[in-house]
């Protein structure tokens, strides 16, 4: 090489390689810290475990509510549930009953 001058072809290749390097670095960064990247993977798995526990609790609660609804079927109401609802909603008690308030 004479005089420190680069041929236009060599400068074009360097520009292309530089652009390719920048693109690869960007893609690598996106894989690491993107919304579905490696760093977000542990957070997503933690959230998944929390949501699964929440779903299990809601399934238990739903089954309890289904049971109460079945006991309140108009064709054959369970007397214990009916008495509980009357007492709690209307504040009605028998004269011989003792009321105990729990915190």
In short:
The chain has 103 residues and is an all-alpha fold.
Radius of gyration: 35 Å
The major sheet is characterized as:
none
| Coarse morphology | rod-shaped
Give the helix/strand class.
mainly alpha
User: What is the number of independent domains?
Assistant: 2
Q: Count the DSSP helices.
A: 3
Query: What integer is the average pLDDT?
Result: 85
Number of strands: 0
Beta strand % = under 5%
First-last Cα distance: 91 Å
* Helix proportion: 55-70%
Compressed to H and E, one letter per element, the order equals HHH
- Unreliable segments (pLDDT under 50, ≥5 consecutive)? none
Plain-language structure description:
The chain is built from three helices and no strands. With 103 residues, it is mostly helical. The chain has two domains: 30 residues; 55 residues, no CATH class. The chain is rod-shaped and about 110 Å long. The model has no long low-confidence stretch (mean pLDDT 85).
Features:
mainly alpha
SSE blueprint:
Elements: H1 8-33, H2 38-71, H3 79-90
